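Can anyone check this?
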Amino acid sequence: MTASLRPRDAAEVREAVDWALGSGTTLDVRGRSSKIALGAPMACGAILDLSGLDGVLEYAPEELVVTLRAGTKLADVEALLAQRNQMLAFEPPDLGPLLGGVAGEGTLAGVVMGNLAGPRRLSAGAARDHLLGFSGVNGRAEAFKSGGKVMKNVTGYDLSKVMAGSWGTLAVLDELSVKVLPAPDCTATLILDGLDDAAAVAAMCRAMGSPHEVSGAAHVGARTAIRLEGVVPSVAARLAGLRELLSATGARLAILETLESRAFWRDIRDVRPLEARPGDAVWRVSCPPTEGPAVVARVRAGAPVARWFYDWSGGLVWLALPEGDDAQAALVRGALAASGGHATLVRATEAVRARVPVFHPQPPALANLARRVKESFDPTGLFNPGRMG
């Protein structure tokens, strides 16, 4: 049985890493395990369970900052912010159910370490853009802080941007601070019914390029959804302008008001339209928005039973298709060859994830840079070895 270490504070995190370093034991670093099935399978000597580092340390609504321990559930942070009508603007997704778990178990630190963002990524930026600071332990068992005691050999890196998206392979965080913003008073979603993929992407891009401050644009089936947020008079005025702008599409127009809109965009955020079935692999494909329909068409030519939807105005495509022996990796990544972009295998069996690169293969120059960053933070490869391939 794999040993499990469950530190209760930052000092015990450093002690655990120091023990691992001294004994040559690799660590499976996890918060509450909601996304443990995302990434290549790992064979580590011990589990470093951060769920004991729980709780919000400081919340300053007037300063728009919340500081929390690394094992704190995202759902708990969001509930706290809602009491003051504030939010995490990058709209972090809950991928637990998609990955075979339950909703509400993921941590905010885990979302940041995956650099995951929902539909509002278009207007609010990625998770890394909201990470203000953190403290943690590197692979030399040295405690460090972002913006404070920065390790000498990584001076010059923007640590927040380096850490976000590292999936726990560079350091163990024990505390982080993130930016929060006021939640909108009103949300309205303009629905365009009846557009095909290409027409829908054209409409979404036109809306995004307009002065109407769109905060979400998705296309599911034959429904194209464009979200507006803000105070009531502003949303009403912008909605009227958006309807006029898109009237020439010939689509049937409808409006989702605030409650319906919030439910709709939660489903988009959490990839619920796919509701992954047994035997389905799920891919997250990023490409130039106008290329999304062509990428999907190339995938469908090889896998007619594929299911899909678009987010980020067409720049993010979620695909579900029969897993087979390789999750259709050659087909999906080959479909990007002409347009550029990258594809991440978000959901597949452990056997398939052991055979197929989960994260998109990097070009040599970028791979060399990633290797040097890894060596700077974790020279002996203690943390999550092999998870990112």
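Reply from J.R.: I decoded it. The two ends are 24 Å apart (CA to CA).
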